[in-house]
Q: What sequence folds into this?
């Protein structure tokens, strides 16, 4: 699907065009074309390939998706694959999508796949500052990457919130049976996020140092900025991962401690009932000469002794923290 | 065993030849020879060595198999060892094989060992696009490596499916005794797959940058493509490994939690029976003056008290989640 | 908020100026300006940007804070982001702040954010040694970084003290239920400290090797000194992290050992009561021909036998370390 | 002890000589000397030092042994320390020895220490192929290193066999008490093997790239071959190490699961006996008005009820998998 | 405190001098001065700084101690910080000290801090071989570093001995409660040792490659020797660390296995007593028609049945390994 296709000159949008007209504008000095696609079919991509002279393999990749984030140079043009992430509140999971970018000196093509937001807002923000858009495709590339990277922050926040909830479950008063499963699931999400983010570091770093004409000298510090953001996101994710591991260990430790407590309670009550039952058993023996059995207050006395022993034991266990 | 031996010119198969004729075709300009072998005996390899001038050590390696994936240069020819993997559904295990490749400017020899599929399909696909096969042995090398790497994907999928089944066992309602063993076995498979894949990264990377005449400039991006696939497979395997470790920990944590529950249940019933038995014991004592023993409704009352106490305890334990 | 703004010449403070006058002093040979800001609003930063020609992106970063520690070169000036740490005794937590530094050949601007101490003491210490302050902004940069890094030492000390307390709880005679939570919380603090410190290593290292005119040859060894301190702090934090992991494991091991002891105690008393209750039960049977029941001393004998058996068992369990 | 000392020319042994004659042969063009020593005393080493001009420090190292594997260049000669390993079937342990090699353009000296096999077989295999021995000391060095590395394979096989036995113990039907100790001991062996092998990687790699005259261009690929073997051995050892860690974890997990089963069994029987004993206790109470006590079939009925209750409980626990 | 201060020429001690005379000897060709200090006060260091022209920062570091091991170049002189270790038998702990070295072309100054042995023996050993001492300060530097590194070996031996004792405790017949604490403490010691040793690797490596005039070409191989020793010590410490981690895990596993055994014993005896008590309870019921109660041999028969049942159960549990 073609979402958007426009020609720009001097940092301003000059025309909304269609695919057939792309090669005309690309041929004009001072013009560049910015095309937004969403899960395009093969015919659209083939047409683009003819109009812009894209490399066979890059078009293949853009069609099939499921690529690793990477930066490929084909002659003087770049092909960039990025993974995007959004937090899916319903599924409590990270939704990973892909954006592929073809960048030449006079064109930018973005191809979105899967669970990913569009770049209409990026386009309008760019058009609002002609001074910067004037730098051409290099700046558009920055704007899109910046948007992609910024969209990771709420994902990281959501993951951290999940961890907070987990911590409450772990250190709360109840042993919750599904804590282990939730830690495991969250770890899966974190690994997915990590896998999406970490190759971006290399891509951003290479773009910040990219020495050829495609990216203006003045635009390059912007890529360093994106690079810093990516590194920060990556750091947060690593921190999450480490804390999750610790959380599972802490959980295991707590379960053991609670088990210890249950066992002490069990042992305590077993002792109290054991003593009481033993006494009742003794006075239930059938010996003929058991003088206390004949006493008028034998029975209340027996009950009293049993109650005393039980209370004494209870009090001692209480003091020892067993009950 | 000689599986296939043919001469090519201009991207087309020109003749099916036998080993004696190989050196004739190799001497002709514009021709190249593509030979497929499967666990060849020494005589075949020696004959090939004479016809193509292969290096002693490479031939030794190709005969004995059990090599590490590697890329060796002997003069202007390459010797490449790759590990192949297929998923053996019966054994629920990764079947690892080996393919050795001799690549010169006018010949490609593939030698298969062990549990590995043939390359007949690769050959017919190559022959279908003379435009690309025209690039000669370099392209054939790409085609075979691409096939080998693509065959890893179903292996990774099968491993991930095994992990899914394991997760169901772990987080399911039953404690399954063999979970630990299955995690351990799966970990062994993952380590085997990892050991097969990870040296491929280096081999592909070196081929993508290989600067000498053997591989055409236009073919090189194809090796970068293979490189990307290998890196993705490697990433998936690393993810699997990490999740397996977490799965075992989660399992341990769950077993402990379940033990806790069993223990609480045990403690709860022990308390209920303890109280009831104690009461029965008390009324079984042989004191002479136990007035309730003589009451007409003493017995039903006693049964009622015992039942009440047990019910009360049961209800309290129930509320506390112990029963 | 503008905290301080002064012009220096020949290593001495020559005037307290305001922002409008900054560009005048910066234009004079032999003069430099040192400005201290605390969470400045946008107007102040914009004015500074005009006066000193700071880079757009650096000003953006300084305004928004929450940056990663980094060192950026914009033309001949440096932009440095550092994380500061203080130990918050009340919250038992590391309070992390940020300091951003703009350093040019004739100016230093420090921008503090969040939980961070001021640099008035740094300024007065610098002014006390005109011989060194004479080296200009490069030396001021050193002085501020040295102060920031030195303020990490009490944080590390506090963390180590917390670990000491934890060790006492873990290896003390009581099982404390919240040990796992405290280990987990402390680990979170250590990870936060680590994340603040570790990027400083790279920043200091690059400054110690920084070859351009901004930092005098004689000042460079001072940065190596700061570098050494950062590395030492980093090492201490890594040591803490490793010990924390071991502490949690040791705790788990101890909890298990204690559980073992509780269980042995439980088993021991269960056996003693079991034997005694069994005997009482036997003599409580209603057989007609149980001669001992008629003996005059049958009852004391029975009590004696029960006591003996219990004592014997007690003594044996005692010796085996079960009770 | 001097094991062997011979002069070679043109790839053939020309004379068995003694130490005094070494310097004569070393001086002759086209000759080289190959000396094999086993734990030599200082006099022999000092004589050799005089005859061949060996470096003081190398001789010191060779005398004292207990060196790390390393490759040192002293002028145009090499000093190489290698660790050797054999599997000691009696002790079920890796026996580590050392071989030191002095290699100059006209001599090779091997010094063996500790638990290590001789190189007589290497010598005879070399003498069988004068074509290769013709390359001089460089080839002899290869032959000895190849032998040392090949002798690691049976060690790795033995370690893997030990792991197989351990796996059987761990996943077998019995909880074996010494599993943890055996895992620990095997881990110690694996660490020892790892420590012997891993520095060899660097030594072989450097020799494969060693550019000076000592090693012929044609001999260098042979060192790459040795390098590949070492890397493979190292990989196997790493795999072992990882599996051992998993084995211990799996063991822990299994022990917990079995404990769970024991506890359920305990709880089940406790419940059955608890119910039965309670009923017996109730009918043992001394109330006057307990009509069932007077029924003719009261006793069999009571026994029947008790048996029924026990059977019912047994059957339910059985179905729940507790018994 | 000034321990020693002497001037050397031609590898021989020519005079014991005091600090004021140092600059005279340093000015003379062919002479060098070797000064040994122990926790010197500021005046001594200041005097030395004047006499030898030491760098401000180096003197600061030497005065305050608590530095990281490092190698700093100040112009043509070196400042080296090393950590020393001795094993404190009383405290069962590693005692860490520091030695700082100033090395110029005509002077060596060693400054000792904390728990560290003197270098009198190094001095006398050096003076015994004028041939080597002739190389000047470079050789003295080697001699001191060699001594420091050699003193690590007994520390490593002591740590390994501690681990041996721990292993005996862990795998011995008794569960020792303080094993976890001892493992934890030993780990702390190992981390301390590691922190002292590992930066030495870099220092030694840089000295072995140090290309400037300070260290003679012939002396450099000696530093490679020291480097090898440091690497070996570091390896041993890493091995210790890994084994300690395994030891704690093995301990945890063993505690669990022992708990399992205790629980089986508990379950076994509970079952035996349960059966016996149940039978006694049944014959203690008050039914009128219980014919066996009237049999002459009813009582012995009951005792016999109870004993038989208990024996049977005992024998079965015994065979199953529960008792």
A:
């Amino acid at each position: 699907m073609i979402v958007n296709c426009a020609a720009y000159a001097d940092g301003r949008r000059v025309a909304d065009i269609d695919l057939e007209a792309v090669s005309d504008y690309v041929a004009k000095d001072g013009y560049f074309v910015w095309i937004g696609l969403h899960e395009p079919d093969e015919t659209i991509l083939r047409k683009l390939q003819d109009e812009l002279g894209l490399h066979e393999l890059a078009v293949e990749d853009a069609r099939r998706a499921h690529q690793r984030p990477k930066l490929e140079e084909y002659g003087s043009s770049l092909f960039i694959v990025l993974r995007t992430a959004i937090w899916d509140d319903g599924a409590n999971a990270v939704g990973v999508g892909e954006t592929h970018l073809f960048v030449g000196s006079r064109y930018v093509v973005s191809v979105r796949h899967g669970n990913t937001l569009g770049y209409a807002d990026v386009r309008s923000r760019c058009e609002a500052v002609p001074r910067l858009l004037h730098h051409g495709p290099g700046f558009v590339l920055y704007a899109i990457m910046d948007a992609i990277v910024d969209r990771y922050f709420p994902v990281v926040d959501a993951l951290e919130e999940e961890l907070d909830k987990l911590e409450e479950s772990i250190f709360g008063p109840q042993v919750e049976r599904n804590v282990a499963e939730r830690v495991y699931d969250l770890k899966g999400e974190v690994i997915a996020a990590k896998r999406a983010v970490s190759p971006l570091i290399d891509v951003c770093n290479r773009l910040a140092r990219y020495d050829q004409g495609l990216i203006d000298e003045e635009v390059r510090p912007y890529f360093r900025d994106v690079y810093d953001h990516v590194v920060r996101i990556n750091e947060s994710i690593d921190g999450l991962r480490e804390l999750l591991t610790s959380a599972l260990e802490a959980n295991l430790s707590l379960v053991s401690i609670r088990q210890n407590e249950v066992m002490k309670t069990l042992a305590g009550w077993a002792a109290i009932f054991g003593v009481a039952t033993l006494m009742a058993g003794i006075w239930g023996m059938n010996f003929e000469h058991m003088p206390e059995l004949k006493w008028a207050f034998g029975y209340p006395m027996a009950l009293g002794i049993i109650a005393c022993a039980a209370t004494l034991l209870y009090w001692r266990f209480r003091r020892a923290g067993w009950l």
